[in-house]
Design a protein that fits this description.
Two copies of one chain form a homodimer. Chain A has helices at 12-22, 39-58, 72-75, 79-85, 125-135, 180-200, 247-251, 276-285, 310-330, 345-354, 365-370, 391-416, 424-434, 446-456; strands spanning 26-28, 35-37, 62-63, 69-71, 88-99, 106-108, 113-120, 144-153, 167-177, 207-210, 222-229, 235-245, 255-257, 263-265, 267-274, 302-307, 335-337, 359-364, 372-377, 383-387, 418-420, 437-441, 459-464, 472-473, 480-481, 484-488. Chain A is built from 14 helices and 26 strands. Chain A is of the alpha+beta class. Chains A and B meet through strand 2, helix 2, strand 3, strand 4 and helix 3 of A and strand 2, helix 2, strand 3, strand 4 and helix 3 of B.
Chain lengths: 491, 491
């Protein structure tokens, strides 16, 4: 199976598209730009959700649910938001179909036209802040720390599975605070939560930073982000957290009485990650043989494949496998025993390689006799023969080791692909040939940012939080600059 | 708080609406017919989801995700399905908005009209079977046992929070099988899973049965259902499971090669429960003081309220409370300590009563001295003084007892409200005055069913699975009948 996959070096984009479909993660549907997330892909997303949800709750958030539809007029209330979001979207104009007059099909019933069009939410700030107005009277009602798991729709012309789809799944946190300081602290906290999740569960190293004004969320005063680097040298924005100031509170008239009895506007944040993370996960670790999954997010961490002739051998191997499985499960390890007689062991090996199962145990008649098993690692594609008595401990150790190995490999690749440049010639050369992040001085103007984008397709991914103060000259304009920012071509 | 709630005996419907809003479960949004599920209400729904999801997975199902939008033409492919679902629905006709020419607002961009309208899914059989065609080639690919947690939209003219909303949350299982027998077994299994969940977690007794032809799901050959009875004597359909035969396989051309190499159409089921269950839960147990929750689904099972004067007393009580909380949590019990200084104990008592928290512990200075605590039950509204040493065991025992008590109370009420009648006079009398289920003979015709509905507003809720064979005369037409069916007015 893996053998027929396009190689990354041949066509990275084609490799990705093929991998997503052939590893049973997702596929295109009959609806333009909308994907079907298949059970195996969804199982990974569920593991992501479970961890993130736990982290959100540990930081004091609760889940809630707000309407899918947003009245058109809500978007007009926050000036910058409308330009960012209300344009390419799905518009509901009617609420009934009827049988066609010729009786051959169904058509829109023109008498059932909505007075005001409804927009399928591209993000929920407006409908949520319209609701918060009813929830907030006094400082006692603050903070509101709410998250929503939902589907959203942004009409995209060019779509790619997980990376850019018209409909996608995400979570959106929307919080309301009494003070500016508290709101900023919340936005920063959630950026750290996202980074923690990306690094410790996805094994994807990220750079924390701030977006420039032109890359900010529509309606935000500050956008915090985490940026990852894919194997083709392109950056991917993996999560954003926005400090929204009082913009939405003013647009939707959300005020509270302070302890002193004064009326003040509420301070806001919003933050989100989406099924796009699946794209980041896939592209960071996978290889020409297929998917590679970090153990912390693998729906199946270990698969046991019996190698047998006849029912008697299978019975003997199954008996042994059951004991091993019970021991592994007692340690919280997810294990599958694939005793299907419809497929041969070689086929199964290829299948689990393609699907990125971190560890594979093969057991045959000879293994039973010698008290051994063959253990194969997906990340290094190495095999070793292990005494059955050591199997459980070895598996436990290797799962940790694989998780670390994937992270370290990704960190090394990422670090090798942050290049400091000091001239625009160098800048273009690196962006064009080496790829990755380019660390360069920038004069802080939108004009320069736009010009660089026009000339190189590279955008400012972020102003890293840990950027050191350093006097320099803008790589394009030569004007004064005090710190370097990171440029890259991006997904 | 509870004191200002409308009484059930005064106006049951008003009582329900007030309760849902005041217990912080849900509220109407600015979008017609769409609700906001508030954090406390959503926490209950999350507990329902978690249990159901576990039960689905234990019966071999996996989750997946299919598109929100369905092309209009898909609905026309299954003849009976289109009449049932494609009528009152949200229709997406455009994919872009633009600034109005007068610059004052945004309007639909008429140049961005979709070639084919998209329907916001009212249910997903069509899009899913369009997908299954690609997933199924041979018997090896069957069964497909897939579930989806999703939002769906059915344009309702008269809406009520949780019971009937334009958008609601649900799960929809869609399975594909090689044989008719296996598909029927699946549909029956899921009805039993739903009944198990309703009775053991929601503490809501249900009657399992079959729908009559006219009450069947559009496109089903058989609809299994569970029917519950509310305190106002009206029935509520709590879940349905459909045997769809080969209808969708034929409409979407889903065939498989049998072991013998023949091409056959695949057999289907679908099954779902929705946020409507929240309505059933609320209406089955709650009283004039507010919500009553079964411990198995209560987000907070026990609340501890300190009664104190000054920081010193609070510190002493907190110390004791922390020990109790740790002991309770070690037993898997969810406990909250409400030491907010913004509200008085009496206010908190009323709040947790309104919100249906099963057990409340109050501890004051005198309790500390005497080593006691006051324990109050939400279901019986009784209080007792307990030695602190017995508290954890008592709480554990009472949570079980409350769960059982609520179920038994509901079973008694339900059983008292199943009335056998043998004449249409009696039928009308019971439906009009006593309410509940009427068990009566029916001649099996749609005409009689319609006529009875027209005259009494009662519908056939189900043909109970355990209905005994019994010769009789139809209560309306006097024609022969072999078993009794259950009629009721319904939500």
């Amino acid at each position: 199976m893996g053998k027929n996959l396009t190689k990354r070096s041949e066509d990275y984009s084609k490799w990705y598209n093929e991998l997503v479909v052939r590893a049973d993660l997702a596929e295109n549907s009959g609806v333009r730009g909308c994907m079907v997330i298949k059970p195996y892909g969804f199982a990974i997303w569920e593991k992501m959700q479970a961890e993130l949800d736990r982290m959100f709750k540990e930081t004091g958030h609760q889940n809630a649910y707000f309407p899918l539809f947003i009245p058109k007029s809500y978007f007009s209330k926050e000036a910058s938001h409308v330009d960012g979001f209300a344009k390419e979207c799905a518009v509901v104009t009617h609420y009934r179909l009827k049988n066609d007059d010729d009786g051959k099909g169904i058509v829109v019933d023109e008498t059932a036209k909505l007075e005001e069009e409804l927009i399928v939410r591209p993000t929920s700030e407006t409908i949520i802040w319209d609701t918060y107005r009813k929830w907030v009277q006094s400082y006692r009602d603050l903070p509101i720390l709410v998250n929503q798991w939902a589907n959203v729709v942004r009409w995209e012309m060019r779509t790619r599975l997980f990376l850019r789809t018209a409909e996608f799944l995400w979570q959106e946190g929307h919080t309301a605070h009494a003070t500016k300081r508290e709101a900023i602290a919340e936005a920063e906290q959630m950026m750290h939560v996202y980074a923690d999740f990306a690094e410790n569960f996805m094994a994807v190293p990220v750079i924390k930073g701030l977006k420039t004004e032109s890359e900010r969320f529509a309606g935000a005063l500050e956008t915090y982000c985490i940026e990852a680097l894919m194997q083709d040298g392109k950056a991917l924005q993996a999560g954003t957290s926005h400090f929204l100031g009082q913009n939405f509170a003013k647009a939707f008239d959300v005020k509270f009485a302070t302890k002193e009895g004064k009326q003040e506007y509420v301070w806001a944040t919003s933050w989100g990650v989406s099924t796009r993370l699946m794209g980041a996960l896939i592209m960071t670790h996978s290889d020409d043989n297929g998917l590679v999954l970090p153990p912390n997010l693998a729906p199946i961490q270990v698969v046991i494949v019996p190698i047998y002739k006849g029912q008697e051998q299978l019975m003997a191997i199954s008996e042994k496998a059951k004991i091993i499985m019970a021991d592994l499960r007692a340690k919280g390890i997810t294990v599958k025993f694939d005793d299907r007689d419809t497929h041969k062991p070689g086929w199964k090996f290829a299948e689990y390689e393609l699907k990125g199962v971190p560890l594979r145990i093969a057991m045959g008649q000879r293994d039973l006799e010698s008290g051994t098993a063959e253990l194969a690692r997906r990340d290094t594609l190495t095999k070793e023969t292990i005494a059955q008595d050591d199997l459980v401990d070895t598996v436990e150790r290797l799962l940790k080791e694989i998780q670390e190995n994937l992270y370290n490999k990704a960190v090394n690749y990422r670090n090798e692909h942050i290049t400091e440049v000091n001239s625009f010639e160098e800048f273009k050369e690196v962006i064009e040939n080496k790829g990755g992040f380019v660390s360069a001085h920038w004069d802080g103007t939108i004009e320069t940012e736009d010009k660089i984008k026009e000339l190189t397709k590279a955008t400012i991914r972020c102003i890293p939080l840990d950027a050191k103060e350093e006097a320099g000259k803008c790589v394009y304009s030569g004007k004064e600059s005090t710190k370097r920012v990171l440029f890259a071509k991006a997904y």
